[in-house]
């Protein structure tokens, strides 16, 4: 994934033709405030005869464009930082750990959504609707979903022919976090890895 990321994309360039998603693990006093932005982009095919990168628009790859953390920020600093990234990086959807309802409500308010999202969530659930079709800021229970998320991520990262996920070598915190991650049956052992909030 890192070798593929090194040749296939530039994480500092904000593309306008891709969908971008942000994951947020909000932390303030006891842990860091971590976030990651990934884009679904056309698959890199190599270099053409004129030295330009070639892309196959009929297949896709996931490019990780940002993976970082804020060290115990003030609440409003974290919200402002995320909103700035959403606006400058053209983020389509944000997936936020539902253990941080105040972060979810603040992000929803800043992006023009109803900050009283719990009532709306109950309605969406009763209607068997998909919150991703209604919301930009989507609560996710990392507590309940972490094993499924870890298993899915491992499957994508292990798939190499062709690679599905591209991680640029400049994303050193994410690379270190992945290389030192410790799991027991897809249960992440937080505290035993470097940059474990990322």
Distance between the termini: 17 Å
* Strands ordered across the widest β-sheet: 5-4-1-2-3-6
Number of distinct beta strands: 8
The run of helices and strands is HEEEHEHHHEHEHEE
Residue ranges: pLDDT <50 for 5 or more in a row? none
Largest sheet: 6 strands, mixed
Question: Could you characterize the architecture of this molecule?
Answer:
With 198 residues, the protein is of the alpha/beta class. Helix content is 36%, strand content 28%. It is built from seven helices and eight strands; from the N terminus they run αβββαβαααβαβαββ. The protein has helices spanning 2-8, 75-88, 101-110, 117-126, 131-134, 142-158, 172-180; strands spanning 19-25, 33-47, 53-70, 93-97, 137-140, 165-167, 183-184, 187-188. Strands 5-4-1-2-3-6 form a six-stranded mixed β-sheet. It has a two-stranded antiparallel ribbon with strand order 7-8. β7 (183-184) and β8 form a beta hairpin. The protein is globular, with a radius of gyration of 18 Å.
